[in-house]
Amino acid sequence: MSILIDQQTRVVVQGITGGEGTFHAQRMIEYGTKVVAGMTPGKGGTTHLGVPVHNTVADAVRLEGANAAAIFVPPFAAADAIMEAADAGVGVIVCITEGIPTFDMIKVKTFLQGKPVSLIGPNTPGIISPGKCKIGIMPGHIHKAGTVGIISRSGTLTYEAVQQVSQLGFGQSTAVGIGGDPIVGLKYIELLKLFNQDNGTDAVIMIGEIGGTAEEEAAAYIKKEFRKPVVGFIAGQTAPPGRRMGHAGAIIAGGKGTAKEKMEALEAAGVHVAVSPADIGIKVRDALK
Amino acid sequence: MKIHEYQAKQILARYGVQVPRGEVADTPAKAAEVAERIGPRVVLKAQIHAGGRGKGGGIKLAQTPAEAEKIARTMIGMTLVTHQTGPEGKTVKRLLVEEAVQIQRELYLGVVIDRAREAAVIMASTEGGVEIEKVAAEKPDLIFKEYVHPGTGLLGFQARKLAFQLGLKGETFKQGTKFIANLYKAFSGSDASLAEINPLLITGQGNVLALDAKMNFDDNALPRHPEIVEMRDLDEESPLEVEASKYNLNYIKLDGNVGCMVNGAGLAMATMDIIKYSGGMPANFLDVGGGVSEEAVTNAFKILVSDKDVRAALINIFGGIVRCDMIAGGVVKAARELGTQIPIVIRLEGTNVEMGKQILRESGLAFYTADGMKEAAEKVVGLVR
Predict the structure, then answer these.
(1) How many CA atoms lie within 13 A of A72 on its CB side?
(2) Chain B residues in contact with A255 (beta carbon < 8 A)
(3) Which residues 6+ apart lie within 8 Å of A137 measured at CB?
(4) Do A156 and B220 touch (CB under 8 A)?
(5) E-assigned strand segments in chain B
(6) A108-166, pLDDT tens digit by residue?
(7) How many CB atoms lie within 10 A of CB B55?
(8) How far is B374 from chain A (nearest CA, A)?
(9) CB distance A248–B191 less than 8 Å?
């Protein structure tokens, strides 16, 4: 099993005719993802990568039955793209774009309130249910179908965790990058709830980093009702305060958001916390014994 | 992005936020001339990107223009050390010369983005002039908050509520609500991540005034604010960080001696962490971007080895769909060009990983390869010992 996306997922790629959109749409198709439409305003009626391109997301939904969107558009157009997909009734929206202004995301989150939409990202590698569907830019070949769920704020660090568990023989049910920005769509708790209900997930890896309080909120939820083993890692144990560490959201502000606080909160919730990033796979193996 | 106090006050004034009369001076003569116009009593404030200036001798009162000139002579060029500058301090290049005002009360007003609530929040406190983090820890009930709905913006009643909570009355209350409303407009209009007025001053005459002002901005939004980008002061940043920013690389200088270069911010932080876990200390944070191009690798390598503190370096690239032979080629090219002698441990993952390793081995340069992060970190830490 898996969460959010599977063989039934039909993807429209917003910005499919651009460089990034073309490159990654091609790889998603090669992976086996059902990319049913592209969307670029003004290019409706054409075909790209063998896929029909539409002027609006609404057309892609109406004519091709798209129920998920992958967004590869420039930062200042991305908030509009997310809201267009939500307005068209797309259920899962994956926004890869990095660099969206925070105020734009605040508007997006307000717009999404009350709509039946799961937004992944922005500033995310995307989401993958191995062997079924990949929406994003992650290397498909390092993944393997299995029973470990992954939730992460990072890109390449997630690949690192995926590879470690794959090498130990454990596959993934679904791996989700929630994004490295201060304000993102789904956070840990919403995804943990889905993994809690998913029969195909036996354990979850939670990869966090400095900045904000999302990990602490997740720890409180895990303590309250999460029934499966969780392995945690927090990046930025050596990060200096007040500096933005690559991701817009990775900053220790006013002494808050340190790795130490987050690791302690997770430990207190019964999470198996890996101090070294090289031990994530081993911790999963031990937790599943 | 950070800016100076005088620049923040320029932006605030544009939005109708009341600030003291003042001008920036970069020579003692100019300081005297400004004092002549707006004084005679003026306050001279060192302009550096750090707080705690008063205690470090960075804020001084002058009774006459002549005294202003004399004090300015000692302040311009001084190295100011505060609890936020680090022990090396910062060189003062200019002063803000402001009218001296009579103080009745010192309050606090700030706007930030609350990440958990996903909204801007206005914070007000009767405890002005001290760090808000300290108030939050010791007297949290003296901090008042109003969250702003993005659809409506800050509402009139919210500004009034805060002004009442601050105990403002009469004409001061009217000025206070206007001040709060305009401060929020300045915050949202310039895509700020922080706008802090500490202290917010009630003058002897009952006027509301921003005695100090600090603004930080959302880097993602800067392309739509060219006038703010122009306010960037490169003297306030480390030279290597400025150089890295030219190539769109995320580089932050740290205290250790193990350099590192990684693709992706999360993996870059994790690499720093595992260097420490293995007994070493990272010399920097360096993210070449998740997608990693040959050009980025070459530029990053130059930045990395030009740090004199670096005694060994770890390159950790999880390419995924990126080709390792391309990355290896970029590293070898850069190392040859620079003729570097620093031992370098390289961990590569991705397509053509064996080809990549072969290129490194056959280059004849001081490269060590490693499988996995653990081996890589232990090797590089072993090399600096």
Answers:
(1) 25
(2) 133
(3) A24, A27, A96, A125, A126, A155, B290, B291
(4) no
(5) 22-25, 42-46, 59-62, 79-80, 90-91, 95-99, 103-114, 119-125, 143-148, 192-203, 208-210, 214-217, 250-253, 258-262, 284-287, 312-323, 344-351, 367-370
(6) 999 999 999 999 999 999 999 999 999 999 999 999 999 999 999 998 999 999 999 99
(7) 11
(8) 6
(9) no
Q: Is A143 on the interface with B (CB under 8 A)?
A: no
pLDDT digit string (tens) for B5-64?
999 999 999 999 999 999 999 999 999 999 999 989 999 999 999 888 988 899 999 999
B259 touches chain A (CB under 8 A): no
H-state helical runs in A130-186: 156-167
Taking contacts as CB-CB distances below 8 angstroms, the residues of chain B near A235 are: 266-267, 269-270, 273
- CA-wise closest residue to B269 among A207, A100, A231: A207
Task: Measure A278 CA to nearest chain B CA, in Å.
Answer: 6
Of A32, A40, A33, A36, nearest in space to A16 by CA: A40
Nearest to B304 by CA among B267, B366, B257, B369: B257
3 state SS of A270: coil
Active-site residue (options: A24, A48, A143, A247):
A247
Pick the catalytic residue: B196, B251, B368, B378? B196
- What are the Cα distances from residue B256, in Å, to B45, B283, B310? 34, 4, 8
- How far apart, in whole angstroms, are the C-alpha atoms of residue A195 and residue A186? 13
Residue A175 host element (H or E): strand A172-177
Tokens for B315, please give them.
């390159």
Q: In angstroms, how far is the first alpha carbon of chain A from the final one?
A: 21
CB atoms within 10 A of CB A115: 13
pLDDT tens-digit readout, A48-88: 999 999 999 999 999 999 999 999 999 999 999 999 999 99
Tokens found for residue B34:
């400004």
Set of chain B residues whose Cβ sits within 8 Å of the Cβ of A137: 290-291
Quote the minimal CA–CA distance from B346 to chain A in Å. Answer: 15
Size of interface A-B (CB pairs under 8 A): 168
The residues that bridge with A73 in the sheet, in sequence order, are none
Give catalytic status of residue B196 as yes or no: yes
Judge: A275–B218 Cβ closer than 8 Å, yes or no: no
CA distance A63 to chain B (A): 32
- Write out B8-51 in H/E/C secondary structure: HHHHHHHCCCCCCCEEEECCHHHHHHHHHHHCCCEEEEECCCCC
3 state SS of A3: coil
CB A115 within 8 A of CB A144: no
